[in-house]
Structures are given as structure tokens and as C-alpha cells.
Design a protein that fits this description.
By secondary structure, the chain is mostly helical. It has helices spanning 3-32, 34-51. Helix 1 (3-32) crosses helix 2.
């Protein structure tokens, strides 16, 4: 295996682990604080509606 290919595998593997930990932390935060979780969902929904406004 070439060094460059191994480097890409390490980078993507590390990013996958980081992303899993980040998503787990966010989900546990929303689970422990349902009102703040609802606020985050409302904000994300508003941003989505503003972004994809067709008018």
C-alpha cells in the first residue's frame, strides 16, 4: 500500500470517528434538554425554509 493511500484512509477514518462522536453528543444533548432541542429544530427549519424559498 502506498503512503498516500494510507494517509487518505487515516484521514477519512478519523473524520468518520469524529463525526460519529459529534452526532452522538448532539443527540444526547437534545435528549437531555428537550426544550433546547425543539428550539434547535425550529431554527434549522426556519433556515431551511429561507434557503429554499421559491419566490
Amino acid at each position: 500500500m502506498q503512503k498516500k493511500q494510507l494517509a487518505w484512509y487515516l484521514i477519512f477514518g478519523g473524520l468518520a470517528i469524529f463525526l460519529l462522536e459529534f452526532v452522538t453528543t448532539i443527540l444526547s444533548f437534545i435528549g437531555n434538554h428537550p426544550l433546547l432541542g425543539l428550539a434547535c429544530i425550529a431554527i434549522a427549519g426556519g433556515v431551511f425554509l429561507l434557503t429554499f424559498d421559491t419566490e
